[in-house]
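Problem 12. The chain below contains 211 residues. Write out its predicted structure in token notation.
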Amino acid sequence: MKKLRIGILGIQGDIEENSDAINEALKELQIEGSVIFLKNFTSVTEIDGLIIPGGESTVIGMLLFLQKVQLDLLKNKIQSGLPVLGTCAGLILLANKTYDKTVGETKQHLLEILDVTVERNAFGRQKDSFESKLNIPFLGEETFNGVFIRGPAITEIGEGVQILTKLDNKIVAVRQNNIIATSFHPELANDNRFHKSFLNMCLEYNNSKKN
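Solution.
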């Protein structure tokens, strides 16, 4: 197996925190790998997985969509199986549709590659940030500490979308084929199980490219 190359969208948000979580998860899994910070997508063909971190989804989306040609390259790569982990703002950017309960449907740029509708700031604003223990069978029996910072929630899902967990009856984590998306910030949980699950997907993807 070649050394895994994990890309983190390096425009804005929890970039270093995700890098730390990936490097720790690589050590725990005893997998050789490295992290690449992507400012654009010219090198997207060289990576085995992509993390779209939490941050300001409007800002990230606006900067992304200035790179129209590269954006098509990214969407094609994801649709052909590139594993993606999107957290908080990453979930919003991946979604087909988003809205805000105050202002209604948002006009922000989206990748429209995850078959969900997302409500922004579903748990309140920055001052309403909180942590909650989540039951996520996908990760095992032990609960996972969900860190919610202006967290969105998923209000509608398509047929191919698997619900991973809910909080207060709101969907806060899903998987659709090669995409995992969460309303919370697993990189802030001091628990690398999400990142390890993501790396295992990247490992399968890396192996499949050789066949």
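Discussion. Residues 18 and 187 are 5 Å apart (CA to CA). Students who got a different answer should revisit the alignment rule from Section 12.3.
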